[in-house]
């Protein structure tokens, strides 16, 4: 099993997503955040399930999809992953993952 760590930035993105959706419906916001969190738990068993994101440093950054969201994560080594952010599909992810 691989340990999953959420960076402060990723936690902040998830909080922003919740706050935005909660403006219309708090129950749906709770559901979406919970489902994103649950989707990330798949990485503990299948860390390479996301597609490889090309980057200049050749780090193993991958993207896992959930609905309209892209979950960016870094495979640090065979035992640990860092969730870097949760981005809406309409965002230019390159601005955040340089």
What's the layout of helices and strands?
Layout: E1 3-6, H1 8-22, H2 26-41, E2 51-52, E3 61-66, E4 69-77, E5 80-88
Helix pairs in contact: 1-2
Name its key features:
single chain; 98 residues; alpha+beta; YaeB-like fold; five-stranded mixed beta sheet; 5 strands; globular
Characterise this structure.
- Helix 1 runs antiparallel to helix 2.
- The protein contains 2 helices and 5 strands.
- The chain is globular and about 40 Å long.
- The chain has a single domain (3-95), classed as RelE-like (YaeB-like fold, 2-Layer Sandwich).
- The protein is of the alpha+beta class.
- Strand 2 (51-52) and strand 3 (61-66) form a beta hairpin.
- The protein is 32% helix and 31% strand.
- The model has no long low-confidence stretch (mean pLDDT 92).
